[in-house]
């Protein structure tokens, strides 16, 4: 399907570790760039969306873009056993495996960032670049991390520069 200057894309389906069907799409030219699922998405509609089409068109001019619908949304299964953190990391891993990606750049946006960070941490030999856009590192309450950050900031304010 050709949309607004985007090259034709192909949609395929794979399965995550828990059996949930995951839809993914590929379009553009090398090098490979995996766009982590970051919003309620629908692979076909996003190419027509006034919000996403220009962004996706620009990426496809730079790389072969691999992207997927988040579990429970878009083309994949809607009846899912879990929407937890690890299940969503496994979805990303399933797309990597189904796409046959050996090494690739990974773009984590919005709430997709923590999953991209986790995947890159677990698979550093496969992620050539990690790009984070409008995201954060922690996807669940991080009380200990918040306390540590407050400690570090208070040390910096007092002139102490040694890490804790």
What tags apply to this protein structure?
164 residues, alpha/beta, 6-stranded mixed sheet, 5 helices, 33% helix, 22% strand, disordered C terminus
SSE layout:
Blueprint: E1 10-15, E2 21-28, E3 32-35, H1 43-46, H2 53-62, E4 64-68, H3 85-99, E5 104-109, H4 113-122, E6 127-133, H5 143-157
Helix pairs in contact: 3-4
Our measurement of the CA-to-CA distance between the termini, rounded to an integer number of angstroms, reads 53 Å
Portion of residues in beta strands equals: 15-25%
Helix content: 25-40%
The mean pLDDT is: 82
Number of DSSP helices? Answer: 5
Give a written overview of the molecule.
The chain is an alpha/beta fold and 164 residues long. It is built from five helices and six strands, in the order E-E-E-H-H-E-H-E-H-E-H. A six-stranded mixed sheet has the order 1-2-4-3-5-6. Helix 3 packs across helix 4. The longest helix has 15 residues, at 85-99. Residues 156-164 have low confidence and may be disordered.
Can you describe this structure in just a few lines?
With 164 residues, this protein is of the alpha/beta class. It is built from five helices and six strands; from the N terminus they run βββααβαβαβα. The longest helix is centred in the middle third of the chain and has 15 residues.
């Amino acid at each position: 399907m050709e949309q607004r200057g985007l090259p034709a894309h192909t949609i395929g389906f794979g399965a995550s570790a828990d059996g949930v069907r995951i839809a993914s799409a590929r379009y553009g030219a090398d090098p490979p760039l995996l766009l982590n699922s970051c919003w309620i998405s629908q692979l076909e509609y996003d190419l027509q969306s006034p919000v996403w089409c220009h962004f996706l068109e620009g990426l496809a001019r730079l790389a072969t873009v691999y992207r997927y619908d988040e579990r429970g949304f878009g083309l994949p299964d809607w009846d899912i056993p879990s929407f937890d953190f690890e299940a969503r990391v496994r979805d990303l891993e399933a797309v990597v495996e189904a796409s046959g990606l050996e090494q690739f750049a990974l773009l984590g946006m919005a709430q997709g960032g923590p999953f991209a960070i986790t995947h890159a941490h677990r698979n550093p030999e496969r992620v050539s670049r990690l790009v984070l856009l409008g995201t954060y590192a922690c996807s669940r309450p991080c009380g200990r991390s918040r306390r540590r950050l407050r400690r570090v900031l208070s040390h910096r304010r007092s002139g102490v520069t040694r890490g804790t």
